[in-house]
Predict the 3D structure of the following.
Amino acid sequence: MPLGPKNIQDHGFLAMDDLSDCRNNIFGYIQGPETIALAVDGTVALDGSAGNSFFIVALAANATTVDWANGAYVGQVMTLELQQDATGSRTFAWPDTIAYTGGEPPTISTGASLTDVFQFIWDGTIWQQLNAGSIGNVAGS
């Protein structure tokens, strides 16, 4: 049953079975993190349309293609964490369907066991990068 004014009017209160809908509507589909382990060169799929807002991509190979789905709602912020493995030098092929700060895709760290963190916001049409570069560059665990 979808949450809405009618439910609250009918019940006079928020029904218990509406709580998950309430959480999703109020807190913006909080989920995650979703970890994607890339073991061989290939495609990484990031699907923000399901409401997930936190992706960790463990790079043990090169991300040669990135399929980045639309967001779930305007204002959704997605955090993307890219983790190099112990070898490092893995690449991430940024899609051209994102509005990057400065007009160019960011550069990721290539050192062994380094992690970069990027954030993007969905404006209803396109993902826009929020930070000019990685907001975090730390040694992995």
Notes: The chain has two domains: 1-28, 31-139. The first strand starts at residue 34 and ends at 38. Residues 31-139 form one domain.
